[in-house]
């Protein structure tokens, strides 16, 4: 039988062990939700040692229903699927300290959910904000990002609460480039990316995978060493875990 990690040392200060509680809004897809769960707990264990794990609430939406909302551009319905668990765990306050959406595409609900959280004292930790901080810290020369992901994400630069609009805001100041032809957009949307990836690497300073699941199949070796390939889901999950560990 596999051995359990050793128990944490007795007598540790309770404040040292404290970690803020997160509400994870998942289901798009279940694999992406698992990535967030595992990454956050890996960070928690690396910090606390022993059998440390993160205090989390997880709501997993029905992917089939959510993708119907996406396909019909029913963004209010997409947000409503997450609104009930958000309301249940943030009002009255004290049950969770922050809300995390566990997929890039599901951030189409971010604006509505942020407005619903106003007055609760509970922030929504947005993937684009965490990604921008990561890039500025780890790749300070990068200002132009090549974006690969589903059609709806690549086509929507106008929603300031979503992904491209947030990255291009005055707060973050990135320039975001998407595939230049409808044919290339269609290829990426269908997951056929070899030629498009190479083309994006030639005209950008970093490539961002705007689909959580792309990080499972597209790796740095597919791009080469000259242009960093950045998976926002992994960056986001690590960043929210580190946020939760702050005193």
Automatic annotation (TrEMBL):
<dbReference type="InterPro" id="IPR001920">
    <property type="entry name" value="Asp/Glu_race"/>
</dbReference>
<dbReference type="InterPro" id="IPR015942">
    <property type="entry name" value="Asp/Glu/hydantoin_racemase"/>
</dbReference>
<dbReference type="GO" id="GO:0047661">
    <property type="term" value="F:amino-acid racemase activity"/>
</dbReference>
<protein>
    <submittedName>
        <fullName>Asp/Glu racemase</fullName>
    </submittedName>
</protein>
<dbReference type="Pfam" id="PF01177">
    <property type="entry name" value="Asp_Glu_race"/>
</dbReference>
<keyword id="KW-0413">Isomerase</keyword>
